[in-house]
Specification:
single chain, alpha+beta, four-stranded mixed sheet, 13% strand
């Protein structure tokens, strides 16, 4: 089972458990709902209901549920996961073509897109802080074949993350969570896309 399959199954199971619980048959508060979800996740973690690849996320969410209560927004979190991972579950156009279509949309929205320069050392882009997406030319050319993504690609991006997640999903793409420390471009974060959208961890979620 891939990470994507596991996280989607977990989200669907959690939401189903909540909808079938006694809570839905009576008036309940957001705090009670969060308490239910937190206990459900804790039980799933204890029983190892899901693959080990979800253990870290479940541990964090259980901790958040216990410390933040309703503020953890666990139901909303599972709904976001179900929406985003469900949208790419059946696949779609080849991901290399999807990436190119997404980049064209970003260009049309006045995002600077650079794909014709090798990136192999720390750099600074002088673009007055405007949104930008940079992909090293060898990766952009060498990791796509016949329209399909055959190897992971790193994107160095400076842009509003909600927009990134939303527009990427419109083209059937999941982005990794941005990593500022891993970026070779100053003031940018490093994001990754993977063949088959098979991210090794939780992707960047739409709020």
């Amino acid at each position: 089972m891939t990470y994507n399959q596991a996280i989607l199954a977990m989200a669907r199971d959690g939401l189903s458990a909540l909808s079938n619980s006694a809570l839905v048959r009576k008036a309940h508060t957001a705090a009670q709902e969060s308490h239910f979800m937190c206990n459900w996740m804790a039980e799933a973690l204890k029983k190892r209901t899901y693959p080990k690849c979800l253990a870290n996320e479940l541990t964090i969410w259980v901790r958040d549920g216990r410390s933040l209560g309703a503020g953890a927004k666990l139901k909303a979190l599972l709904e976001r996961i179900e929406h985003q991972y469900g949208a790419v579950e059946q696949g779609g156009k080849p991901l290399g073509d999807a990436l190119n279509a997404w980049l064209e949309q970003l260009k049309a929205d006045d995002v600077l897109v650079i794909t014709d320069t090798p990136i192999d050392a720390k750099l600074k882009l002088d673009n007055d802080g405007l949104p930008s997406v940079i992909i090293s030319e060898p990766e952009f050319k060498g990791h796509i074949a016949d329209g399909e993504l055959i190897k992971p690609i790193t994107l160095y991006i400076r842009a509003e993350e909600n927009m990134l997640a939303e527009t990427a999903l419109q083209h059937g793409l999941l982005l990794s969570v941005g990593d500022k420390k891993a970026s070779l471009i100053k003031h940018h974060k490093a994001y990754r896309i993977y063949p088959g959208n098979n991210q090794p961890g939780l992707s960047l979620l739409i709020p």
